[in-house]
């Protein structure tokens, strides 16, 4: 940790939120002199205070340690660049269209790496009137099942959660051509892009 850089960032974030040093100090149960010391680069927050300080300033702990914010490159929020994160503890699913550092159940989550959808992880997609009917030939047991199926277009995403003992099937409204995803609790994320053909990709999808 560079005390000077961290101090400058703490001061900047505090002022952006219209807070005084005393208000920050009161939230952390320290003296305002301690906050002043941090901002002048004459010391650094104790490790035990970092999580609380990050919450007060509405940033992540890593930004405080680095003494800087790292904004993402502008990508227009293209949904086809969607990143998926799944908590291995509770199964919670999070998404982002750019770099992120999400966490759940005390764990830092890494984006799931997508592989081509094939075999038992392939998606059979049929047009039924104004909907897409998606079916997968995949086990749906408690320890091994499809957690979700999703479709992402340029401007939106639709995700359907799935649960053990239910069929691996779902209905989606008709949308512009997009990228299809399926997440297996044991083998990770799989994707079907563009006009990919084969047993599990029907023409026109």
Notable features of this structure?
5 helices, Immunoglobulin-like, elongated, Helix-turn-helix domain-containing protein, five-stranded mixed sheet, disordered C terminus, Cro/C1-type_HTH, 434 Repressor (Amino-terminal Domain), three-stranded antiparallel sheet, 23% helix
Strand-helix topology:
Elements: H1 3-16, H2 21-28, H3 32-39, H4 47-57, H5 61-66, E1 83-86, E2 93-96, E3 103-104, E4 107-108, E5 114-116, E6 124-128, E7 131-135, E8 146-152, E9 157-161, E10 169-173, E11 179-184, E12 188-192
Parallel strand pairs: 5-12
Antiparallel strand pairs: 1-2, 3-4, 6-7, 7-10, 8-9, 8-11, 11-12
Helix pairs in contact: 2-3
Describe what this molecule looks like in 3D.
There is one protein chain. The protein has helices spanning 3-16, 21-28, 32-39, 47-57, 61-66; strands spanning 83-86, 93-96, 103-104, 107-108, 114-116, 124-128, 131-135, 146-152, 157-161, 169-173, 179-184, 188-192. It is 23% helix and 26% strand. Residues 72-77 and 195-205 have low confidence and may be disordered. The protein contains five helices and twelve strands. A hairpin with a 6-residue loop joins strand 1 and strand 2 (93-96). The strands form four sheets. The chain has a five-stranded mixed beta sheet with strand order 5-12-11-8-9, with no helix packed on it. Strands 6-7-10 form a three-stranded antiparallel beta sheet, with no helix packed on it. With 205 residues, it is α+β, with helices and mostly antiparallel strands. It has two domains: 3-66, lambda repressor-like DNA-binding domains (434 Repressor (Amino-terminal Domain), Orthogonal Bundle); 79-192, Sandwich (Immunoglobulin-like). The radius of gyration is 23 Å and the shape is elongated.
